[in-house]
Each structure stands twice: as C-alpha cells, then as structure tokens.
Input
Amino acid sequence: MHLGSVSFDGVRNLTPVSLDCHSKANIIYGANGSGKTSLLEAVFLLGRGRSFRHRDLRLVISRGLDQLVVSGKIARPDMNSSHQLGVSRSSKGGFEARCNGKNLASAAELAAELPIQLVDAHSFSLLEGGPLQRRQFIDWGVFHVEHSFADLWKRFQKALKQRNQLLRHARIDEESLALWSKELAPLNEMITEQRKDYLIQLERYISPLVQALKGLGEVTLEYNQGWQEGASLIDVFSADRDRDIAVGTTSHGAQRADIKLMVDGELAADSLSRGQSKLLVYALKLAQAAHFKAVTGNSCVFLLDDLPAELDADNCRDVLDYLNSLGCQYFVTGVDKEDFEGVAKEGAKLFHVEHGVISNV
Output
C-alpha cells in the first residue's frame, strides 16, 4: 500500500498544501529548520493520530489555530482499490479520524489502515534507551500481523489499570484484588506468547538484512518476559503482594518485558560503534517491513528523517535499495538534493521546503 496523495492544514509552520506522492521514492530537501521534519510529522499524524516529536499538540498545531487536519488517499494495489483517510486533532486534545467517511474509534484503527515505520535520531534509543522503546518495537510487529492483538492489548491494559488502582487504595479490597489478578494473569501469558512467536519469526529476516548492510555479525534477540520463566504469574502476584502495595503498581508482568539485542554474543549497546548501532536499527526496522510484507502481502510506509546525516552514501544506497526491493513507499529528508541524485535518476518525486512552503520540483 502507499499514499497516493496527502493534504494538511495547521501543522506547525507548513503552508496548507496538497501533494501527489510517488508510489516509492519521495525526497524532501531544504535547509535546516525549513519544515522538512514537519512534513514527515504530518504523514505520521495521518497514520498514528499523534506526533512523534511532542505530546503537547499545542506545539504541533500552527500558531493562531486551534486544530490541525491531515488527509490522504491510500492506494491498495493488492485489493485493486483505494480509500480516503483523515485525521483532525485539536489543541485541547480532541481526536477525530475517518476512513471513507466512517468514523474510526481509536488510533489503533487508524494505524491498521496506514502502517508506518519511522526512523529518526531518536530511533537509536531502541538500543540505548529503556525497555519501553523495545516493547514498542515488538508490539508494532505483533499488532500488524496478529489480528487478535489489538483487542488483547486493550483488555490487558484495562485489567492492569484496575489492579494498580486497587493497590493504591489505603484499604485493600482483597477479593477485588484477587479477581483482577486472576483476570490479568492469562492476558499476560497470551501477550507473551504472541511476542515470543513474533520474535522467532523476525529473526529469520534479520540475518539476510545484516549481510545486505555490510554485515554486523550474528544478531540475536533474547526476550525477557517480565517475570521468572516457568513461574505461575498468580503465584508471582501473591509473592509480590506487599511490595506491590508499597509501590502502588504491579511489579511483574508483560508490561515489564524487555529484549536483549545481541551481536556475536555481546550486548549491542555496549559493543557497537555509533555507526554500527545506526545500521543495526535500520536492519531491525527493515526486517520488520520484510516480515510484514511476507505475512500480509502489503508494504508499509517509511519515514526517514535526515538519512544522509545518519549513514554514509553507500549505506544510504543500500537502505533505499532494500526498500525498493520490498515495494515500500518512503519519504526521506535531507539538506542537499545532490545526496539523492542516484535515487532521483531512477524515478522519484522531489519536494523542496523553504520557510514552510513545499514546492514540487
């Protein structure tokens, strides 16, 4: 699938515009601060309903306005069809999304319509940051290939929230605590099973990608499920009772899971150079795209912010070549048009951004 066109109004400093997109290569260039990343942000808003730069929408909506609107036409060659997607967000947090005129109830429904992969300067926290980034990495993949995951995750979050609220009460309702613990335990196990199965499948796609990107060594993913392997989670909850009450939250479970990213048996964050770390992040994201394509028959949309600043010319070429081989549409930013001459010669759309004004070159 790919974006045939995208329109936006009220996004940061960008002048309202409607753009026709290339089915694969879309190159956005211009000086620093011109609005290139804001264009990527607009596309991200269309697929996720939120910004990847700020939680506070007041910083994303254009000055003097109280809402932003992004819409796009999604082409589905596999179904020989297309559909119209639209999102509006208000400065007070209001959310509205529609697909072909039908209201979508949540950002999860929006994400299912337009699968987006983002790689920017903050993506490297996948290796160096906390467990949350790595859980989000897994859950992106599971969400897009396991149809039951979205509902399972919603039920899990509700049960976890209820249990945590009980733990914070001055007087514990033991009966209710036992009921929510019993509700939560199997949900943890189902989420863990789906995550583990996904990682086993994903590893098959990582090895050829590592080789395609000049080789980093043998990459393996070790999953820590968030509680002791082989232990009954009900027993763990019981043993944790006093501790959970003291801290007011559930200490063990799928919400505490993490992945160890290993290269040649060593922790990637400790053993790789900065350049190698960047390559590994690209390899992981591209492996997810390859797996997604194999399972669903569809391709996802990539947003690559300042690619030439992150990778050297050869590695940039390798990344874009692999995206082309997968049939993925991508929007890539850079300062100099010359950095993309090879891609442009093979067919691409070029957009120049200057002071928030986007021109089709």
The first strand starts at residue 2 and ends at 9. The mean pLDDT is 91.
